[in-house]
Amino acid sequence: xxxxxxxxxxxxxxxxxxxxxxxxxxxxxxxxxxxxxxxxxxxxxxxxxxxxxxxxxxxxxxxxxxxxxxxxxxxxxx
Length: 78
Prior knowledge:
Elements: H1 7-19, H2 25-37, H3 39-60, H4 65-74
């Protein structure tokens, strides 16, 4: 990651845009090259990708009616 002493710091900065697929071709290639060569960042990428999939799946599941009622009862007025 050109111009940075610590390529892992740069990778951290572009991780979410990389996952969102909004980096330009050069940035994406740079991030991918770093992920291939850095086990720590590769593990971090795998974790972030898995977390996104988990959240996406969890958002699609309906809550049981009992849980919805309990959560509603815990709400406090604004």
